[in-house]
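Students often ask what a holo structure prediction actually looks like on paper. The answer is less mysterious than it sounds. You provide the chain, you provide the ligand, and the output is a string of discrete structure tokens encoding the 3D arrangement of the protein together with pyridoxal-5'-phosphate.
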Amino acid sequence: METAVIHKGYGSAVHHDSLAAPLYQTSTFSFETAEEGESRFAGEKAGNIYSRLGNPTVRILEERMAEIEYGEGALAFGSGMAAVSAILIHATKAGDHVLCSRGIYGCTFGLLEMMEEKYKITHDLVSMTTEEEIEGALRPETVCIYLETPINPTMEIVNLEAVMAVAKKHGLRVIVDNTFSSPYLQNPILMGADFVLHSATKYLNGHGDVIGGILVGKDGEEMQNIRMTVQKDVGGIMSPFDAWLIIRGLKTLHVRMDRHIANAKKVLAFLKEEPLVKKIYYPFDDAHPQVEIAKAQMKDGGGLISFEIEGGKKEAQAFMNALSLIKIAVSLGDAETLIQHPASMTHAVVPQTEREAMGITESLMRLSVGLEHTDDLIEDLAKAFETVKPKLQEA
Ligand SMILES: *Cc1c(COP(=O)(O)O)cnc(C)c1O
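The corresponding structure tokens follow.
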């Protein structure tokens, strides 16, 4: 992987010996002759036609992603949600049922609700910890399993081995949103998944300056089919410039991930010693109830930590406001350490009772640990704890 993210899919000889992959910022491609155009449209000759159908810069990124997620093909989209919607449109038709893991990304849930209302494609959410539970939730019309693991923001783990066993037994497709782990920590296709998708906005790009999505598929022919149907006709493609930026970011994925993880573990150790911290959620924390499953399917614990402090929303907001180096923002996987408050931000649309059942309390915060020096991060956090301590003592 370390080599593929730097070299795969690019040869400088056909690009004027340019070491860096060039940016083909063009909407269309001209044909030498009318006959040449005809044969490209007929699919008899390889070659570029129009950037919605493929672009040389975007293709370099697609080839790299297919390689590092162990698929035969990949497609780049204008956002993570464009990748999610493309695969759900491709994998379902009216009357079908999709079985999902609990706590899927809010907009994915919104899309599924819309598909249910408009197209009669139904869904259910289950925690997916055992084969029995998954099997029990299947319906005759279930066609695919759609999941995320770890689950945002409580870091619950979906048991991938159990999912794959049930899917195999019942002939179901498995789609995994692998955004939280990145290809560095978890490769669902190797475990039996059919499709893996990413919000490239997060760890893949890693620099907080692009919105993008990637879909990787086990079957190359099917991916070409998606390219020439859903992607071409719905049109949520990635721009060449965004692909160029992600190619640049992706080159350091492994280096960044190592540091995100190392930093997260130091921050975790600090949080565990802090008396105002009530609960901590991190997949490789020994206190995590599913740490064994996490260790069986992930190379390491990643860069995200959620934690709950004493008090409620007021205290959580005071804590966040007292931070200065750590930025208050949604998104994750950037060089900057980011903190967000799920109950009032990413999960504000989830009804409160459901939120509480998921463990999203009013004082829960999610930290995306960045690449700064951990001494500085810990100093910033310690200062914020000092700020809320007197408020809690008053109460
Ligand atoms: C951010 C995110 C998405 C959506 O991606 P966008 O690039 O914002 O469209 C989907 N799934 C997960 C797990 C995410 O974190």
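The chain has two domains: 4-250, 253-394.
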